[in-house]
Amino acid sequence: MTPQKEKKTKGKVVFAGAGPGAPDLATLRCVETIKSADAILYANSLVNPELMKWAPENCEIRGSADMTLEETVEFMRGIVEKGGIVVRLHTGDPSLYGAVAEQKRALEKLGVDYEVVPGVTAAFAATAALKGDLTLPEISQTLIITRGPGRTPVPAGQALRAMAAAKATMAIY
After folding, report:
1. Which end of the chain has fewer CB within 10 Å, C or N?
2. Gap between the Cα atoms of 135 and 142, Å rounded
């Protein structure tokens, strides 16, 4: 019997958009990513826990609601250094109103590889549920996705009133 070569996997973090809530609105790529995960870190108050049904049996699943940015990054780094894949599940699409930028910057400083899997955002899911359209000929050919001020301030000139002056379709989060 000849010894088999040990398979060395390169770990990484995958920021995946979990969609607007319904598990069947998660993209195929998101589901495949979950199926390949060694660990899943998700915002337990925002991401539907039913998505975890696709996780492998020995996958470490952890909610991030009680974790700081530093703890989140350290958890991900630890898994990746062992050659594992961490799926960082965010609601909707990770590029929209998520805390992904600060996580990516921290991972880059540490030399940790990552990729981003897009997701379905709530604006599109809500429009579909209402059987509506976000753009219509001669009415609106522009979509503005915005939000009001909250814990994160809105930059000067991007207040809702200013955005509404464009007379475009607006999805307000």
Report:
1. N
2. 7
Strand partners, 27: none
Crossing angle for the helix pair 69-81 and 100-110, to the nearest 10 degrees: 50
C-beta separation of 76 from 86 below 8 A = yes
Banded model confidence at residue 115, pLDDT cuts 50, 70, 90:
very high
Cα–Cα distance measured from residue 3 to residue 17, given in angstroms and rounded to the nearest whole number: 40
Type of residue numbered 12: K
- Helix then strand then coil, in percent of the chain rounded to 5, is 30, 20, 50
> Is residue 69 a contact partner of residue 106, using CB atoms and an 8 Å limit?
yes
Q: How far apart are CA 93 and CA 85, in angstroms?
A: 19
Q: Is 24 helix (H, G, I), strand (E, B) or coil?
A: helix
- Burial class, 20, CB count within 10 angstroms (exposed 0-12 / middle 13-18 / buried 19+): buried
Per-residue pLDDT band for 33 (boundaries 50, 70, 90) equals: very high
